[in-house]
Design a protein that fits this description.
mainly beta, disordered C terminus, disordered N terminus
């Protein structure tokens, strides 16, 4: 295991060089026209549309629309959008360098980070204050902290348990812990920390889905084959594993897992049949929400209690709202291109449901 600590090393170019690099980089430009006009009023968050670029979700759940791109398409390979911050991490399609895009809701500013190019995978912490980058051959991770204002390299580690790719990756908000699992069956979930090296956490049947709770060292882990969901308390000190739920609560073929603000519930997105299950951490009754599609994601958006459930660009964007007395799933129409490739446009009721 290799560890590097250098929290003072800042990871972006000076402003003048950044602006020059952005101007010279073909295809990396902000949306033409008075983009600020598009972002007036309620803003749920942003999504990465591979057809158009980084786009805002305007309005409120049940009465929202996808706005025009604030940054053009084809510039980015991977994008991770912060759930509680007005920024995103992105690898560029050309050269695969890592960049941070700040001020998405105003005038996006792009800065290149002085990290190794070409991470195969990256993940932001639940509140977006930290990030983990995964590199293969040899397998290793780089952890960044201080996001978004003062990004710095915190530590790095080799991953001897990973040989044929990665199935799961997550980092805690304090940037001291990383959960990961190798792409194999049966699967093992491992913990890497800045201070204590690596340790085995849990063995599962296949393809774990992992997520840290918000501002916590506790984590939720789902088995995509059996549907079992576990809560692991005190990961870095004395781990305690407890089963939260599974098939009897409606969990089936989990595609993603995430905690809601306040860490009251853990939500699991089901592929088959499509739906979302909310598991209460206090042992309360499970919440089941049907979906007319197969969710592929469970990414918390800027407004906090809203989660993106699929990728934009192939039919309507679907989001989960968890606040209030009636959580549910609603779609977001595309104001620029209409609903693409869905075959039929859903009709939204005033209460946010469908008909």
């Amino acid at each position: 295991m290799e560890r590097r600590t250098n929290p003072a090393r800042r990871l972006w170019f000076p402003a003048g060089l950044t602006l020059l690099a952005v101007v010279c980089w073909s295809g990396l430009r902000a949306q033409e026209g008075p983009g600020g006009d598009y972002l007036r009023g309620p803003l749920i968050g942003f999504v990465h549309d591979r057809t158009w670029g980084l786009r805002p979700v305007l309005g409120i759940p049940g009465a929202a629309t996808l706005g025009p791109a604030v940054l053009s398409r084809a510039s980015f390979d991977q994008v991770a959008i912060a759930p509680e911050g007005d920024y995103a991490l992105a690898t560029l399609a050309r050269g695969r360098r890592l960049a941070i895009v700040r001020d998405l809701s105003a005038a996006p500013e792009i800065s290149f980070l002085e990290t190794p190019a070409g991470p195969e995978r990256m993940a932001l912490s639940p509140s977006g204050s930290a990030a983990v980058l995964y590199y293969g051959n040899p397998a290793r991770v780089e952890v960044l902290t201080g996001l978004p204002s003062t990004p710095a390299a915190a530590w790095s580690a080799d991953l001897p348990a990973v040989q044929a790719g990665l199935d799961a990756l997550a980092v805690s908000d304090d940037a001291t812990a990383v959960l990961y699992a190798a792409a194999r069956q049966p699967s093992q979930v491992w913990l890497a920390t800045a201070d204590a090296g690596q340790s085995f956490v849990l063995g599962l049947a296949a393809a774990p889905r992992v997520a840290f709770l918000i501002q916590s060292e506790d984590a939720a882990i789902a088995d995509s084959l059996t549907g079992d969901v576990f809560l692991v308390r005190h990961l870095k000190s004395a781990p305690i594993v407890a089963r939260l739920g599974g098939a009897e609560e409606g969990v089936s073929s989990p595609a993603a897992i995430s905690a809601e603000p306040g860490n009251r519930r853990v939500f699991v997105a089901n592929r088959q049949p499509g739906g979302v299950v909310g598991l209460a951490l206090d042992g309360g009754e499970a919440l089941r929400i049907d979906c007319p599609f197969a969710p592929t994601a469970l990414e918390r958006m800027e407004s906090g209690s809203v989660f993106r459930l699929n990728e934009p660009g192939r039919g309507p964007l679907w989001i989960l709202r968890t606040a209030g007395s009636a959580p549910g799933v609603v779609f977001v129409p595309d104001r620029r291109a209409g609903v693409r490739g869905s075959g039929r446009t859903p009709i939204q009721r005033p209460d946010g449901g469908l008909r």
